[in-house]
């Protein structure tokens, strides 16, 4: 399909104003080779020149030149479809240019535009002019990202309510904020405080550095709704020393606020410091907790089974060690080794259970090499202080590091697959936070990547970018969970905050929206148009065979029996064969006269106690009777009106015309002048 130049706020075509010397919006490669030109014509249409395909990919820019009358443009979008049938948009800023003045924008891979200069030989992405909102871009077709909730301070983890209530204000998920709060977010995105003041020390400090400590991971008991949280606390003997623990919170108001707080595991004498602290919690299908423990910058502790640090712990929900743990032995008393599920880890931030093979997986930060690994009970992952040791048992290593901090599996066993397509089920998703508090676009992090594993947990494909940051601010990916209707990720920082700890971070939701297939041929409509399988005479991005069947608009008037009359059509409105287009109204009063109205434009006018949806002048078809029940008054009536080829020809209606239809009928249940019935309306493109 042809590229479309549209108003960003309305989606309507943007026509450049006519002038003696025409204005132009020119898409070109960095060496000036033309890709696309949109030039002012007569003030009613634009002249579009679509240049031949380049031999290879190239950096692109937009050069906007004002005509002899100057040029004022609102924010506009330039939409086009690539060779893979994927739709892209270039986001152009609002501009006011003097006659002959030029404005140059460099284009990022996600369509954001950056201030440029025509003399520059290479892209300059320093000054963002217009970007995405939110500033994140999905890189897989069919997925969309939106903001679910906001206003958080350093949200490091989230956990869903397993059986959330259906109401808008029911608790839906919990968010752990690093500096001592657990937030509760309802289904409608409203944010409240579940528990606060959880830390008994001041966590603020250098960032990165001593300020990176506090609350870590979350899990929710599906039976009781209790919330488990990991965190550090000040050692009573020396408050400057911080030790890890797990607290359990119970509620008496349906999970909206915590009423009882109980420490279920207190790891005194196991000091931890910033980042390398207690973190992720995973609730496994057998009702156990897996708890991730950083090494606290004590490398040797990771190899010592008598230390909790540098381990994955496995425990019961009351905090006791699981009796079937690999090193459990109650005969010599309960100590750290009785809790150990896996050892030899440095900083295992993220983890999740994979149903396909019954194993947990972990993503871990190393000094300059990061690790993605499958957890095996009793295994030593051999962290010894060296980057080389991070290669042990790794499915994948990031080198240079990307700081993987969150891991989720989209799987049928978790909320039915989160609404993702079957091709995505079983895939792993990893949040890569990248460098601490980094600004703008980054090559190493600030993204969520997608991974494919086989039945045995071996890596088949990945990482491929699934979601990436596309702005000029500080936001990055951190907490990650598969939810009922998509994949949820927390921004660690407020995107445009003054510092790392300023509130304002958000929860993003990535949802799958099946591409439109209006003609039911199992091919994306965009691909039908791109391949020429379908035509699009009105250039609205919808195959003509679907436009010719009609789309409804406007609001019907509820009749005197409380029914809402509905308009619909069968067949296609064409000037040639097949001659099969019939407009119908159902749910109308029985035994009443009515007729179909046609116009060349839509309207939304108050009329007869309802809405007249077709703009005068109006052509009226001959009256008909609705039929239906022979006695009483009900909503069993139906109107049907054929719109034939002969009718189109006799009224001068040609292919490419848009027709608007609405049924009018009598309704004696209302007083004059409102004693009429009105359906909703139908907009139909007349096709060849």
Write a structural description.
This protein is mostly beta strands and 688 residues long. The chain is built from four helices and 48 strands. It has a seven-stranded antiparallel beta sheet, with no helix packed on it. The chain is globular and about 100 Å long.
Q: Which structural class best describes the helix and strand composition?
A: mainly beta
Strand order of the largest sheet: 4-3-2-5-10-11-12
Fraction of helical residues: under 10%
Distance between the termini: 18 Å
- List unreliable stretches of 5+ residues: none
Tally of separate helices: 4
Mean pLDDT rating: 94
Largest sheet: 7 strands, antiparallel
Structure summary, number of beta strands: 48
* Range of strand content: 35-45%
Give a short summary of the structure.
This protein is mostly beta strands and 688 residues long.
Question: Features of this protein?
Answer:
mainly beta; 4 helices; 41% strand
What is the topological layout?
Layout: E1 4-7, E2 24-29, E3 34-40, E4 46-50, E5 60-65, E6 71-73, E7 76-81, E8 87-92, E9 95-97, E10 102-107, E11 113-116, E12 128-130, E13 136-138, E14 143-152, E15 155-160, E16 171-177, E17 181-186, E18 191-195, E19 215-220, E20 227-235, E21 238-250, E22 260-266, E23 278-283, E24 289-293, E25 311-315, H1 336-339, E26 340-342, E27 350-354, E28 359-364, E29 370-374, E30 394-398, E31 404-410, E32 427-432, E33 447-453, E34 459-469, E35 477-483, E36 486-491, E37 505-512, H2 525-531, H3 544-547, E38 551-553, E39 566-570, E40 582-588, E41 593-599, E42 602-607, E43 610-614, E44 619-620, E45 624-625, E46 637-642, H4 645-650, E47 658-666, E48 676-685
Antiparallel strand pairs: 1-7, 2-3, 2-5, 3-4, 5-10, 6-9, 7-8, 10-11, 11-12, 13-34, 14-37, 15-16, 16-17, 17-18, 19-20, 20-21, 21-22, 23-24, 24-25, 25-26, 27-28, 28-29, 29-30, 31-32, 32-33, 33-34, 35-36, 36-37, 38-48, 39-40, 40-46, 41-44, 41-45, 41-47, 42-43, 47-48
